[in-house]
Amino acid sequence: MPSTGTTRARTTVTALALTAALAGTVTATASPAAARTSYARYVALGDSYASGAGVPDQIDTACTRSSRNYPSLVSAALAPTARADVTCGGATTAHMTTTQTGSGGPQFDALTADTDLVTLTIGGNDIGFADIIVRCATLGLFSPNGAPCKSSYAKSGVDQLAVKIDATAARIAATLDGIRQRSPGATVLVTGYPAILPDNGTNCFSTVSIAKGDAPWLRDTEKHLNAVIAAQAAGHGARYVDTYTPSVGHDACKPTGTRWLEPLIASGAAPFHPNAAGEQSMATATLAAAG
What we know:
By secondary structure, this protein is α/β, with parallel strands linked by helices. Helices cover 40% and strands 10% of the residues.
């Protein structure tokens, strides 16, 4: 019979494989603070943080799309004449113009000349979200008090994850320019990502096997990605939606009822993704930015 530590390690790795699969591949209630501006045609683009991976009810299992994802809540509040939600779990910037497995085609196909509101959540999969989670949580098992994941990304003396994030800037810029070309009159709202780990840099090893020294580095890495997204939004005629700040104190380390993102052993969403409360928070921030 395997030891407790071995059993736990195997359980963790198995669950992490599920996380990677989810990344590769609740009736809507809106915030009472409805936006002042009315919109006629709304298109939602993006990845699993926008599709609501694992949040019930899943209305498109191939794209892990929920009836209670933040685009559904935004649509319920704004009541546009027409709405298209083409968000899909695992999407990268490349899937704006190319067909993703399980999707109905390139996400940009939903855009029209008369689209007047677009929301976008993208970038996490461009830097390898699933691989980062699997690597960091696995390495943490062997060095819980160190920073093994950070070290693994900096073997050359350069933080390769930071390099990946900086390289994503051009792809996000091209995505925003592509939206503008297809829907020149649209208000474009680009969300960042909510807090996955505690903002104070602590970890919760019994819940998520992230090493003590890796937790603050991962926090800063996520903030770096959000800063890049915000900068590209500002430079390409879009509005940045800060979903990180409202989520502080509601990360995956918090207990059920407080957390807005689910931990490794998830309930109500895919691991390391927003649950229904998290999607509601993203909707509230998006509605505020909509005007």
